[in-house]
Amino acid sequence: MYIPFFHTPQAQTFPTIPDVCLCKEVHTKTRNKPRTGFGCRTIVPSAKCNVLRITRKKTKTIYPYTLHGETLEEVTSAKYLGVTISDDMTWNRHVDKITARANSKLGFLRRNLKVRDSKLKETAYKAIVRPALEYCSTVWDPHTQKYARRVEMVQRRAARWVTGRYHNTSSVTNMLSQLGWRDLSQRRTDSRLVMMYKITRGLVDIPIGQYVRYHRNGIHLQPIMARTQYYQFSFFPRTISDWNTLPKDILQAKTVATFKRKVATSAHDLPY
Which of 27, 54, 83 is a domain's end point? Predict the structure, then answer.
């Protein structure tokens, strides 16, 4: 599969492009295409545009895309709507960036919020640091222990700061239990399941029939077979597997709030 991704203020993706001939066709449609904004025709500067080739092939289909007479720079990753997309179809670079940003925010709080009130520090962590670790997690939830732990370590550092216990014999696991903080990996699974609940109930604009089908019991979903890990651990195959392990009383919840409350008490199996 080869998909060119034009990273612009209004990013565009195109379907699988098997050869140079189709590259030329896509190029013709986009090179002189103006953008429309606020009722006027505006030209996007070429300097703000890049080409990201998303493929697992060892030999890529190379084509020099141009926009308004300038050749677009090819990049290996691009940030779109706050999520870093990589050409190798992994989320490793995104995890590296968000953990670095979250650690920076936690360091800022430690330097400037010099109080003993653990409740105040806990509120600051949940309001400033944790959202940076969970934004769009339904998309990039890591399936390897290495990157899941990298995210988890930020919360473990925050637990030491909130409780004020820095001794090397202090158990961070006990701190997390004392604070009542759920593992971030479990919270990401909760988020994926809540999104699936919304999809199955028609609460978001994602047609369920295009991606998943109900089992004959009308509650569980038919598993999706995947030949690669890229697909196996993407949203639908992975979340369907988690969905089918939930008790029926949770799956039959009447409202999103009820489902969210019940699923947050479940211990989900992790792939590592």
Answer: 83
268 occurs within a structural domain? no
Buried b (16+ CB within 10 A) or exposed e, 142-181: bbbeebbebbbebbbbbbebbbeeeeeeeebeebbeebeb
Backbone angles phi, psi at 217, to 5 degrees: -80, -5
Whether the CB-CB separation of 17 and 57 falls below 8 Å is answered with no
Let me know: does 152 contact 173? Beta carbons within 8 Å.
no
Total domains in the chain come to 3
Q: How far is Cα 234 from Cα 25, in angstroms, rounded to an integer? A: 30
Same domain, 144 and 203: no
Task: Say if 271 falls within a structural domain.
Answer: no
Mean pLDDT is lowest, of 61-65, 92-96, 174-178, 263-267, for 61-65
Q: How far apart are CA 149 and CA 143, in angstroms?
A: 10
Tokens of 39: 């009722």
The reply to whether 125 falls in a domain is yes
Q: Which of 83, 115, 132 is the last residue of a domain?
A: 83
Question: 213, 266 in Cβ contact below 8 A?
Answer: no
Q: Note down the domain range covering 25.
A: 2-83
Please give the backbone phi and psi of residue 223, each rounded to the nearest 5 degrees, phi first: -60, 150
Question: Residues 169, 174, 178, CA angle at the centre, nearest 5°?
Answer: 135
Distances (CA, A) of 185 to 40, 152, 155, 192: 45, 8, 11, 11
Asked whether residue 43 is domain-assigned, the answer is yes
- Confidence band for 180, pLDDT divided at 50, 70 and 90: very high
Q: How many residues does the chain have?
A: 272
Same domain, 108 and 75: no
Average pLDDT value for the chain: 84
